[in-house]
Design brief:
Helix 4 crosses helix 5 and helix 7 runs parallel beside helix 8. Helices cover 37% and strands 22% of the residues. The chain has a 6-stranded mixed beta sheet, with helices on both faces. The chain is an alpha/beta fold and 285 residues long. It has a domain of 190 residues: Rossmann fold, CATH 3.40.50. The longest helix has 18 residues.
Length: 285
């Protein structure tokens, strides 16, 4: 990893009293949590619970109205001063969105997409960038054929692998995954979750996994935070919260999870990118 500098204050991501209002509506109300280095925290709740607004504030896509966000002791709450600081913050926390097709430029090949990120954020020359692109593709289980493809030529799972590779290119400390498997078929969801577990185990990166689907939480997280109407109702180790929930809302969420025929990752909603197509064998970790 490139990040070796030290800073005063607790390590990891520390969020304290985060607040956000839109007019008369309070979207996030005093959310606090800590993600230790290399940890994995799931933020769960129904649509409108405030979970996506929370993480958008962490990555700088929304401005908080109150509270603090610190990473390894450095305050990220104030507005970044200049382009260099904005890029430095972007490298620290990266985000993978729900729909990989919308987050990828349809005119740019996979190689070009990853090379663009490396040119923006690193001082690598062309040869070094080419080598790094190959490493990233290998890390997410993609090969030479996918490297020269445009997003429309890839399956949904392959596109999400590209989005993950792009986020990993800058060696972030924290990866935010906002419903990152929700738009994929059940079997592809399981593959992506396996991929993410392997990356975390090898790299020590921290995960914030945003989901409405408690069926995936036990497979991706150490800790879980339950949000409703922008407020934290319950938090703690995954096994404790899921096996012995204290709040009625958490029990309600758990009761809504199907008990039989369930593959970790939730119900699939989109296919593999074309009728009758299965996943490319090279996309399986």
């Amino acid at each position: 990893m490139r990040h070796t500098e030290t800073h005063a204050g607790p390590k990891g991501l520390v969020v304290d009293g985060l607040r956000k209002r839109y007019g008369a509506h309070t979207a996030v109300d005093g959310v606090s949590f800590t993600l230790p280095p290399g940890g994995s925290l799931a933020i769960v709740g129904e649509s409108g619970s405030g979970k996506t607004t929370t993480v958008r504030m962490l990555v700088g896509l929304e401005r908080a109205d109150g509270g603090t966000v610190r990473l390894d002791g450095r305050d990220r709450s104030a507005r970044a001063r200049g382009r260099a600081e904005r890029l430095a913050r972007a490298r620290e926390i990266q985000m993978v969105f729900q729909d990989p097709y919308l987050s990828l430029d349809p005119r740019v090949s996979v190689n070009g997409c990853l090379d663009e990120v490396l040119r923006l954020h690193t001082g690598l020359d062309a040869a070094a960038r080419t080598a790094r692109v190959g490493e990233l593709l290998d890390q997410v289980g993609l090969g030479a054929r996918e490297a020269v493809s445009l997003p429309r030529g890839l399956s949904g799972g392959q596109r999400q692998r590209v989005a993950i590779a792009r986020a990993l290119a800058v060696e972030p400390r924290v990866l935010v995954l906002d419903e990152a498997v929700a738009a994929l078929d059940v079997s592809i969801q399981a593959q992506i979750l396996d991929l993410l577990r392997g990356i975390r185990r090898r790299s020590g990166i921290g995960y914030l996994f945003v989901t409405h689907d408690l069926a995936v939480v036990r497979h991706v997280a150490d800790e879980v935070l339950v949000l409703k109407s922008g407020t934290v109702l319950e938090s703690g180790p995954v096994d404790r919260v899921l096996d012995a929930p204290e709040h009625p809302y958490t029990r309600l969420l758990l009761n809504s999870v199907p008990r039989r025929g369930r593959v970790p990752g939730g119900a699939g909603r989109t296919g593999h990118g074309g009728p009758g197509r299965g996943p490319d064998p090279r996309s399986v970790p």
